[in-house]
Amino acid sequence: MQVHIYRFAGTADEWTLEIVDHEGGHTAWTGAFATDEDAFEAFEHAVAEDGIRSFVEQPVEH
Questions:
Q1: Is the pTM of this model over 0.70?
Q2: What is the pLDDT of residues 22-60, one digit of tens each?
Q3: φ/ψ (deg, to 5) at 9
Q4: Pick from 28, 33, 23, 30: nearest CA to 3
Q5: Which of 7, 13, 23, 41 has the fewest Cβ atoms within 10 Å of its own Cβ atom?
Q6: Dist CA 22 CA 62 (whole Å)
């Protein structure tokens, strides 16, 4: 599992959060985040609520 938190270099764009699982599937959040820390906290919250396996077992909308 990989957690991708990114924005375009040299911009003040908001941060994007995407999870890539071991099978190559991905879950992308529909909203953006003011900071990279906010994005990571959203990932942590999803894991606490739904479990890490939820990213592989079925599509998750956040």
A1: yes
A2: 888 888 999 999 999 999 999 999 999 988 888 776 555
A3: -60, 140
A4: 28
A5: 23
A6: 20
